[in-house]
From TrEMBL:
Listed InterPro entries: TraB/PrgY/GumN_fam, TraB_PrgY-like
Lineage, top ranks: Eukaryota, Metazoa, Chordata, Craniata, Vertebrata
Protein name: TraB domain containing
Organism name: Geospiza parvula
Superkingdom assignment: Eukaryota
Residue ranges with Low complexity bias: 7-18
Pfam families the record matches: TraB_PrgY_gumN
Region (Disordered): 1-33
Length: 373
C-alpha cells in the first residue's frame, strides 16, 4: 500500500571506504573519525540551508500544517499538462522535502519507469490480451471498468499526443536529487476502487456508464487541459458522465480524497534525528512533505485535513450484488452466444463454399450415379 524509495542522494558521501588511499593524511583521518550520526547532521544542515524559509511557490500549491509543526505542500495538477510538471519541479526544489507523496498505487507504479514514447504506445494499444489480464487480476466487472477507463485515457493521449503521469515522473526524478527524501505512493489500490465503484451501481447504471465510455470521441485541445487546472481533466470527463450517479462519485473521488489525506498525514509525522549513542535522548524535527495529486482532490484533502480519519471502511470490498451476478451471467451468455453464432455462420459458409466447388459437385454426381447402375 505504501512504498518508499531511498534515493541514491541519501547515501553517506563521508564514508571512509570512499576516501582515496593516496590522499592527505588529514582528510583520511577526518573521514575515519566522523560517525554516521555526524555525517547525517552535516548533510541535513546542508539540506536545511538550501530549503527556502519563504519559498516562492506556484499558485497551484496549497499549504497545510500539522499539530506538531510539520508542513505539507499539496501541488494540484492536471494529469496531461506541461505546466503541472514545472509546478512540481519548482515546489520540490524550493522546499527540499523529506517525503514526496504522489497519487499513485502499486498497480500503476510502472508509469514512473516508462518514458513518454513507451507510455503513448501502451495507452493506444488496447487489445484482447490486456483485457484478459485485467479481468484475471480484478474480476470481470472491475477488469472491464479498468479497460474502459484506459480507453478514456488513451483517447486523451491520442488527442494531445501526451502520455499521462508526467508530473509523477518529474516528482520521482526531483525527489531522488534531495538528500534523505523518501518517495511514497499515496493512492488507494485501484482494484479496491473499481470493485467498490462497481458495487455502488445498479445493473442499468453499469450498462449506461459502459456505453458512455465506449463511445467517447469528443476532441480535446491543450487549451482545454489548461482550462481544467481547477479540476483534473480525466476526472472532470468522468464526472460529466457519472453526474447522475452520486454513489459512483463517492467511491471514485470522495473516498480517495480521504485516503490521500490519510497518507499525507502519515508522511508528515516528525522525523527522528540519529543519536550518537543509546543514552542520548531522542530528538525530533517537523517534517516537510510535498504531495502531488490531481487538482480535483485538493478541496477534499483540505476538507478532511483536520478530521480523525479511519480508512478501514473504505478499504473493504463489498460482496457482489444480485445485479452484478446477473450482469456477469448475461455477459458470459452473450459472449458464448456470439461465439456459437460465429462458428455456425463460418461453418455454414464453409460448407456452402465447399459444395459449390466443381470438384465437389463432380464427386457428388458420381456418388449418385453408383446406386442407379
Amino acid at each position: 500500500m505504501q512504498e518508499e524509495q531511498q534515493p541514491e542522494a541519501a547515501a553517506d558521501p563521508m564514508s571512509s571506504s570512499d576516501a582515496p588511499e593516496d590522499g592527505p593524511k588529514g582528510a583520511s583521518s577526518i573521514s575515519q573519525n566522523i560517525s554516521d550520526a555526524d555525517a547525517f547532521k552535516i548533510l541535513l544542515e546542508m539540506k536545511l540551508k538550501k530549503r527556502q524559509k519563504r519559498p516562492a511557490l506556484p499558485n497551484t500549491v496549497t499549504e497545510l500544517n500539522t499539530e506538531d509543526g510539520s508542513k505539507v505542500y499539496v501541488v494540484g495538477t492536471a494529469h496531461f499538462s506541461d505546466s503541472s510538471k514545472k509546478d512540481v519541479v519548482k515546489t520540490i526544489q524550493e522546499v527540499q522535502p523529506d517525503v514526496v507523496v504522489v497519487e499513485l498505487c502499486q498497480y500503476r507504479v510502472s508509469m514512473l519507469k516508462m518514458d513518454e514514447k513507451t507510455l503513448l504506445k501502451e495507452a493506444k494499444e488496447i487489445n484482447l490480451e490486456k483485457l484478459q489480464q485485467a479481468i484475471k487480476q480484478n474480476g470481470v466487472m472491475s477488469g472491464l471498468m479498468q479497460m474502459l477507463l484506459l480507453k478514456v485515457s488513451a483517447h486523451i493521449t491520442e488527442q494531445l499526443g501526451m502520455a499521462p503521469g508526467g508530473e509523477f515522473r518529474e516528482a520521482f526524478k526531483e525527489a531522488s536529487k534531495v538528500p534523505f527524501c523518501k518517495f511514497h505512493l499515496g493512492d488507494r489500490p485501484i482494484p479496491v476502487t473499481f470493485k467498490r465503484a462497481i458495487a455502488a451501481l445498479s445493473f442499468w447504471q453499469k450498462v449506461k456508464l459502459a456505453w458512455g465510455l465506449c463511445f467517447l470521441s469528443d476532441p480535446i485541445s491543450k487549451d482545454d487541459v489548461e482550462k481544467c487546472k481547477q479540476k483534473d481533466l480525466l476526472e472532470q470527463m468522468m464526472a460529466e458522465m457519472i453526474g447522475e450517479f452520486p454513489d459512483l462519485h463517492r467511491t471514485i473521488v470522495s473516498e480517495r480524497d480521504i485516503y490521500l489525506t490519510y497518507m499525507l498525514k502519515q508522511a508528515a509525522k516528525q522525523i527522528e534525528l540519529p543519536r550518537a549513542s543509546e543514552n542520548e535522548p531522542r530528538k525530533y524535527i517537523p517534517a516537510v512533505v510535498v504531495g502531488v495529486v490531481g487538482m480535483g482532490h485538493v478541496p477534499g484533502i483540505e476538507k478532511n485535513w483536520n478530521s480523525d480519519l479511519k480508512i478501514q471502511e473504505i478499504m473493504s470490498v463489498p460482496p457482489p450484488s444480485a445485479s452484478s451476478k446477473i450482469f456477469k451471467f448475461v455477459l458470459k451468455a452473450t459472449v458464448f452466444g456470439l461465439l456459437g453464432y460465429s462458428c455456425y455462420r463460418i461453418g455454414h459458409r464453409t460448407v456452402q463454399f465447399v459444395l459449390s466447388m466443381p470438384a465437389t459437385q463432380s464427386y457428388l454426381q458420381r456418388l449418385t450415379e453408383v446406386p442407379q447402375q
